[in-house]
Every structure is written in C-alpha cells, then in structure tokens.
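ingest -> validate -> predict -> emit
validate: passed (alphabet ok, no gaps, 440 aa)
predict: started
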Amino acid sequence: MDTTRFANIKAEANILGAVLVKNNKILDVIDVLEPQDFYDGKNRSIYAAMVLLYKHNTKIDITTLAEVLKEKKDVTISYISELVADSPIGGIKDYCRIVKEKSKMRVLRKIIQTTANEIEDGREKSSTILEKLENQLTATAEEKDTLLTDADLMDKTLDMIQENYQKGGAILGLKTGMKTLDEIINGLQKKRFYVIAGRPGMAKSSFALNIAQTVARDKNVLFYSLEMGAEELGIRRLAMRSFIDTMKLEKGIMMEDEWKKMSDTSSTISRGYCYTDCTPNRGINTIRLQCKKLKMQNKLDLLIVDYIGIMSLKGMGDSRQEQISTVCIELKNMSKEFDIPVIALAQINRGPEARNDKRPMLSDLKESGGIEENADVVMLLYRDEYYHKNTKEKNVIEVNIAKQRGGRTGTIKLAWQPKYQLITDRAIYQEDGTYDPKNF
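emit:
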C-alpha cells in the first residue's frame, strides 16, 4: 500500500506526542479518532492504552504506558520516548483531521476492492451487491444517522415508560433534598436545562449549594462557583450540614461539642462526590472540556453554574443579549450531549424594585429572551423579609416555577435558615431546633 496516500505516520506520532506532553489534549482527539484509525500498529496500541489510562483517571506518561503495553513487544520505551521528544507545539486538531481522512480512504479502498471482487466472482445479484455497498458506505459517513422512524420513537418511549413504571411512581430525576420541589418538577431530569433566578439577596447560591450537597451524597456533581471562593463555599456546606452558625465557623469560636460536630461533618462531606471550580471568568468551552473529561470517567451526573452573568462571554456574540443567549443554548446542548441535568443561576433586573409587589416575573430576567427561551424550567426566588422586615413570612423562600416545559407552574414555599445557609421543606425544620440533618 502507498502509505503516503493512505496513511500519515508522522501525524499519528504527533498526536500521541502531544497527549504525552499534555494529557488533556486527548479530549481533542477522542471525539474524532478510534484506535483503528491509526495505520501504524505501534501507534494504534499506544492510543488505545492512552484512552484506557485516561478513563481510569491515570496519568499518561512513559512509565504508565510501558506498564499497560508490556505484552506488546513491538512497542518499546525508546519509541514512546521519541514521541515525547518530537511532540509538536500545537495543531493537534489538524493532525486528527489528517489521520481521520487517511483512515476513511483506507476503509473506502477496502470496500471498493471487496465490491470489485464480488462483481468479478459473479455469484451474487447486482441488487445484493449494491445493497451491501450502500450499507458499508453509509457506515463510513462522518455523522451518525440521527433520524428515528416511528418504530424507533415508540421503542424509546415505551422503554422509558416501562423504566418509570418499575420505579413505582418514584421521583424520576435526581432529588434536590426539597420534597415539595421534587414533587412539582419530578426531580432534576437528564437532558434538561434549569435556571434559578432572583434579585441579589434572594439566596440563589445557597439554593444551588443545598441541591449540590444533597445530590453529591451518591452522585457526581460539577459545581462552578464564579463568584464565591472555595473557603466561603466550604463554610456554607459545613453550616448547612452540621447545623452550626456560619459566623461561628468563620471566626473559629465554638463550644467543645461544636468542634466535634464540625469535624464529624467535615469527614462526612469529604466522602461526597462534588467537584468544585472557583476560578473566576470561566468560559463555556472550558466548562464543556471539564464536563467531557469527567463524563469519560463516569464522574458527571449534574452540572451547576453560578452564575451566567459573570461567565467569560468572549466570542459568544456582539451584544450582551446575544452572548447570554448563546451561552444558554450551549448549556442546553450540554445537558443533551452529556445526558445530565444542567442548572444555571441568573440575575433578575431591577424591574421588581419599581413595583409594589417585588416578586419577580419572567420578563424581569436580564437578557431574558435567551434564558427564558432555552430553559426547560425557570425558578424565580423571592424572600418577602428582604423587602418587608415586619412580614409574617419570616425565614421563607418563595420558589415560583414560572416555566416548566411539559409540566405545571406555580409557587411553593420553603424554609430558609440564613445562619445555616439551609433551605428545606417547611415541615422539616422546627424553630425549637428539632431539625434532623439526616433528613437532608
């Protein structure tokens, strides 16, 4: 075979070298190339080993590759070392396109040769040969066929109904820790985009953090806090779980039994599954890359972004409204791509401040067009105590389910305990302190 026409060994080596130098580069490769796309047998084995190591969250280097490939006598440590030495500075996506194109050419060549042999053999009818050729060519197409027949659609639908039936009427999605909310939205469901919105001071971040804390007990959560630092988040999570005042935790002034409770709570939280990134000004591409990495390792069940308005919006559009709309489209697409629920927090504009009734409405969402249009569920938070100190609704958060695609809308009321940053069903918390954190 003319390898210059049907393979590019140098491009294959450049890809492997780039991944060895910077492991995260594999995320640019894995969506494009399969091991069989590599023509060279050594390169094919090395790439398959790299994918295996990355999925097991193991560093990809000369030592780990040599261990995985120790049975492959043709793959030597010196060859792997050469890949590192000759690794390119950039252009890995270009190399991927080259290798993929060469791979397709080899596949097409084989298909055509096989078809020609079948024609020469003369044993099969032309219609049979054409059907086989068509199927093989379709299989090599760049995009998977996303069309569903009515039979396919009904099969998927009936499978879902059967699965839900077997759950015995239980909440379908991830439980938020707030039973009243779960009953209305049926839990946080895969492929859905949720928006939590409100004016400053309405406890949006605490609301999201309460959800994260609950889900992270047995599911994997990726929490982007673009506004708060790691220590502040840690204090809040300790408070809501230990039932110790956040002020005491911040100052480190506690009774002896509270120190023990804090220590025990810290150990409990440490056994959870929440991954937190507090880096400011994160962009959607960075978030997508991290999601892809965790999804490959089966470590992503929920994404939370706090909040949309302070994300990096470079390249997302000309106007602010266009940028926000593009980000919301991307977040919605990520919920479908990674098969997870996605939650994003958003600010409400000053509209409520000019009204007698300060409760927010959908039209109050900043750059609301893109947010409202792309969200499957919009929850608007409101605390009457923030505006009216003498209200009868003290320590209460109203959650207005202002939009729910395919579901009912309306307002529920939850208990809010600011000193613990805790939000629960009103029936769970009692003022006499009989609240049991095990229920949360």
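The longest helix spans residues 92-121.
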